[in-house]
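Subject: Predicted fold for Cytochrome P460 domain-containing protein, 291 residues

User T.R. writes:
Posting the sequence so we have a shared reference for the thread.
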Amino acid sequence: MFFMSRHRWTLLRTAGAVALMVGCGGIQSSEAQTTPPPAAGTARSGQVPPPQPSGEPQPRQTQSQERTPEQLRQTPPPQQSGAARQNQPQERAAAAAESGRPPAQPYTVDGRRTPYVAEYLPDGRLVRPIGWREWPFIGTPLTPNRLNLPEAPFPEFHIVYVEPTAWEHFKRTGEFREGTVIVKELVRQQINSTTDPANGAITESSGKGYFMAEYAGLEAAVKDSRRFANEPGQWAYFSFGHVPEAQYASATEVKAVETCNACHAANAGRDFVFIQHYPVLRGLLERVGKN
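User M.O. replies:
I've generated the structure tokens; pasting them so everyone works from the same file.
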């Protein structure tokens, strides 16, 4: 590129490292001052050089082996033996107590259904079951207070679940297998300004009836001929409290025979279970020819 004037003209060579300046005073040359790039691994001004390897092996970070309460609720514990296995129910009971909520744990591992096995603390208390709301649902009996004056023994909705592998066994055989766990969760009945004093029903968009409010208790029944050999039918019954969900006990002792077992023995339709109230169970019995 050329720039012309009255006294001088200048040739600028932009592609090279030397600039020639021609004027009245002659020719001057100068070398362009260039700064070589920093060598590899050399820090530029104002930058901190990266650490150089020392040749010594760096310690590998390992993940803590302690399981948090959330992990205890979400992940089945690894198979162990001896004293370590005995501590697992205590860990889960402690985790449930800390969380204040029923633990949610899936009953499938790698796509395969695995049984939930009732767990007990060393003092014999049953650890609160896990993931029961994902178990097969069989029915919801209801006996409102207003229809059982002055008060019903069990005025709540009874949401009843059966442990999945016990359910599969019943579907095939019509029998509750050894180790069957049945859970009953109680739910309060809604009461509002439309409550009918004669029967306790309320009025909603779908009509007059009974509608669920909050969780209000949790109970379980376990069939175990070895642990409960002296219980009628080898069934034992447990209550984790008739309390709000956040106050469910993490573990509880077996109830006395006269509080639950005696009533089931006298009134239940089949094997200490009130099968007469659950059409899904009656239908399965018909299918296997045991009705």
